[in-house]
Amino acid sequence: MKVAMLDPSLFTGRYDDSLCAALAGEGASVTLYARPMRATDAIEPRGFSYAPHFFRHSEALRDRLGEGRAFRLAKAAEYGLSCALGDLTPLAAADLVHVQWLPLAPADRLMLRRLKDRAALVHTVHNADAYHADAGVQGRGYRALLDQFDALIVHGDTTRAALVGQGIDPVRIHVTPHPPMRLAAATPADLAAIPDPAMPRILFFGTIRPYKGVDLLIDACLQLWQSGHALELVLAGKPFMDVAPLLEKVRAAGFADRLLTDFGFLTEGRLDAHMVKADIIAFPYRHIDSSGAFLSALHHGKAMVTSDAGMFGQLPDGVATRFPVGNASALARALLPLVQSAAIRQEQGARARAHGAKMGDWTDMAVATIGIYKAVLAARA
Question: In Å, what is the CA distance from 207 to each residue of 191, 194, 210, 238, 291?
Answer without folding.
Answer: 20, 18, 10, 5, 12
